[in-house]
Amino acid sequence: MSAEGGQIVDHSDGREVVLKLRGVRTQFGDHVIHDKLDFDIFRGEVVGLVGGSGTGKSVLLRTIIGLNPLRSGTIEILGVDSQAVSGRQQQALQARTGVQFQDGALFSSLSVADNIIVPIREHAGLDESLMQSIAGLKIAMVGLPPDTGDKKPSELSGGMRKRASLARALALDPELLFLDEPTAGLDPIGATHYDELIDQLRQSLGLTVLMVTHDLDSLNAICDRIAVLLDKRVVVGTMDEMLAYDHPWVREYFHGPRGRAAIRQE
Questions:
Q1: What is the mean pLDDT of residues 201-228?
Q2: Where are the alpha helices (DSSP H) in the chain?
Q3: What are the phi and psi torsion angles at 77 (to 5°)?
Q4: Mean pLDDT across the stretch 82-101?
Q5: First CA to last CA across the chain, in angstroms?
Q6: I need a surface site. Which of 34, 76, 146, 170 has the fewest CB within 10 A?
Q7: Considering only CA atoms, which of 168, 179, 177, 178 is closest in space to residue 141?
C-alpha cells in the first residue's frame, strides 16, 4: 500500500496472500461493527491492527479465527475458505495457525508443558515422550528457562505467562500467528524484549503475524504494515503512509505525543 494525496492505494506486487477478507460484516443484534470490510495479509509480514475504542479489533480477530459468527462476506486463511470447511479440513486448517489471547488463556490446573501439549495431542496424536520433548523445545524457543515446563501458570510472572502462551500458540509450527495485545501489561523493557522475540521468530520460522495492539512502539519496531479500523472498514499502510493519511483519528493517534515519542526512538 502507499499514500498518494492522503489516500492509501494497493501495491501488493504479486505477493502471496495468506489471509484474505472480502465484504466482511460483523454485528451483534442490530449493532453493525464492521461492514464491507476488505483486508489482505501477505506471507512473511507482521501487520498491526489498531483502532479506537468500539471499532472491534478483538471482534474482528475472533471472527477471523472462528470464535464469532461471520454475518456476510468471506474469510480465506492460507487459501482456504474458512466458512466452507468442516471436520478434518477444519482441523487441518486450525493446525496451520496459532493464537495467543490477551490473557494467555492457559489452563490453570495444568503445567506449562502440559498446556503446550494440549494442541499437539488434539491434532498430532504423538507419543507422550515425544510431546514432552516438543514442549521443551517450544519453551526454549520463547526464551523461558527449562524448568518452566513443570510449573503452573500461577507460578509465573506476567511476562513469563505471555511467553508460555506464545509457546503453546507455536506448538504445531503454524504458518500464521494471531496475537491479541501481546505487550499489554508489560513494562517498557519487557515489551521491547517481546517485540524482539516476535521479530526473531518471524524471521527464523517464516511466520506471518496479525497482531492486535495499542502499542505504538511495537507498531514502529516490528510491523511491516498497520491496519487501522475506521468507519466500520479498514485502511492498511506502512507507518510512513499512516503518518501521511488524512483522517482525524489517524492524525491524532499517530501524531499525538505518544506517537511522536515512538517515532523519535527509531
A1: 95
A2: 57-64, 88-95, 112-123, 128-141, 158-169, 188-205, 216-222, 239-244, 248-255, 257-264
A3: -115, 120
A4: 88
A5: 21
A6: 146
A7: 168
Cβ(249)–Cβ(52) under 8 Å? Answer: yes
What are the cell numbers at 141?
A: 524457543
Distance CA(202)–CA(199), nearest Å, equals 5
pTM of the model: 0.90
pLDDT grade for 9, boundaries at 50, 70 and 90? very low
Residue 7 has pLDDT above 50, yes or no: no
Contact call for residues 75 and 81 (beta carbons, < 8 A): yes
What residue type is 239 in one-letter code?
Answer: M
Q: How far apart are alpha carbons 193 and 189 in whole angstroms?
A: 6
Residues whose CB is less than 8 angstroms from the CB of residue 50 and which lie 6 or more positions away in sequence, other chains included: 57, 212, 213, 214, 219, 226, 227, 228, 229, 253
SS3 at position 121: helix
Q: What is the mean pLDDT of residues 135-146?
A: 96
Q: What are phi and psi of 138, to 5 degrees?
A: -65, -35
φ, ψ of residue 11 in degrees (nearest 5) = -145, 70
The candidate with the shortest Cα–Cα distance to 39, out of 210, 223, 215, is 210
- The residue among 136, 211, 146, 201 whose CA lies nearest residue 174 is 201
Report d(CA 67, CA 213) in Å as an integer: 19
